[in-house]
Write a structure and sequence with these properties.
10 strands, alpha+beta, single chain
C-alpha cells in the first residue's frame, strides 16, 4: 500500500532526498559515489537504463507527445509531464551542488554530472594519460579534447 511516507533518508551532506523503500535509497546512494549500473534496457534514441521501469519513464517523458506537460518551470516556462523531472530541471537554475566527487572534491548539481565526471576523470581503466597534468581518459578522443583546453 502506498502511504506517501518516506522514512529512508540519504546520509550524504547537502542531500535532502527521502525514499519510501530501502532499495530506492540504496539505488540513489550510488549516484553520490559515481558507481555505474549496467544498462540493459536501451531506448531507440540510444540512452540506456538499468531497469525497464526507468526506460519506460524516459520514453514517457521524452518521446510521448500524447502526455500533457502539466508541470511548468517557474524560471523558464519549460513544461514537463513528470513532477520529479521538473524538480530535477529546476536544479539547473539554482547554484546548489550536493553531489561531491570523493576523489577531487568537485561539486555537481545533478548525480549524472558526477557520474560523467567519474567516468571521464577517475576511471581506473583509463589508458590515455595527459603528459602535462597526468589526468587519465578512457579514450584517445577524450584525451585530445582535454589537450585543447589543458596546459
Amino acid at each position: 500500500m502506498h502511504t506517501g511516507e518516506k522514512p529512508f533518508v540519504c546520509k550524504y551532506d547537502k542531500c535532502q532526498s527521502k525514499f519510501s523503500t530501502s532499495t530506492h535509497l540504496k539505488r540513489h546512494s550510488k549516484t553520490h559515489t559515481g558507481e555505474s549500473r549496467i544498462k540493459l534496457f536501451i531506448c531507440e534514441c540510444g540512452k540506456g537504463y538499468p531497469t525497464q521501469s526507468e526506460l519506460n519513464r524516459h520514453t514517457l517523458q521524452w518521446h510521448s507527445s500524447a502526455i500533457a506537460k502539466q508541470y511548468i518551470c517557474e524560471y523558464c516556462q519549460k513544461g514537463f509531464s513528470i513532477r520529479s523531472t521538473l524538480f530535477q530541471h529546476i536544479k539547473s537554475h539554482l547554484d546548489e551542488r550536493p553531489f561531491e566527487c570523493n576523489f577531487c572534491g568537485k561539486l555537481f548539481k545533478v548525480s549524472s554530472g558526477l557520474s560523467a565526471h567519474m567516468m571521464i576523470t577517475h576511471t581506473r581503466d583509463s589508458k590515455f594519460s595527459c603528459k602535462h597534468c597526468k589526468r587519465s581518459f578512457p579514450s584517445r578522443g577524450r584525451l585530445e579534447t582535454h589537450l585543447t583546453k589543458c596546459c
